[in-house]
Amino acid sequence: MAAPESHAGQDRTVRRALLDAALEVFAERGYTDAGLTEIAARSGVPAGTLFQHYGGKRGLYLALWEEFREEQERRTAATLTTERDRGVVDPIALFVAGARAYLGGAWDNRRLARLIAEDDGPAGFDALRRQWDRAWVRRNARLLEVDERHRAGRVRVSVLTTVIGGAARELGDCEDETEALEIVDEVCGILVHLSTPPG
What we know:
Layout: H1 4-33, H2 36-43, H3 47-54, H4 57-85, H5 91-108, H6 110-117, H7 125-143, H8 151-171, H9 177-195
Helix pairs in contact: 1-2, 1-4, 1-6, 4-5, 5-6, 5-8, 5-9, 7-8, 8-9
Domain HTH tetR-type: 12-72
DNA-binding region: 35-54
Organism: Streptomyces anandii
């Protein structure tokens, strides 16, 4: 009988193979046209095991999104911790550093970022994405020390967050890392300009 750690390791390997294959197929065909048979075949995992782990195509898609979201949050939080440890306290500088980290993650995981930005996802995904976007705006408002009770502040943070999201989508179409870095630098300059409160 296999040790529990060995079984858990095999489980992780199977899940990783399924997610990697799902990302390939979703990226090539889109969510709607992706087939579970093809995902199972590419992963080398039986279709029944796919259902056992993820319940189907929707579960695979949501697991990929969750993985991307968590990695982006980890990356951004680590950057903010590093900046604060270096003595950075300016809210705009911290916000831009976090945005740079987020955009770097969007470039590093561009196939997944591009997939998530498309309108071709499972039923109900748009509502989940909007919910996460609202939470992202709230986190950015706290980081920028904006009073969310004032509409102008809320709108400013919403616009800034939208700029970052739009730039992340653009990174998915970049030809190479040089072009991606130029976009990140340009967007961070725009964010500095837009982050400065009027007056």
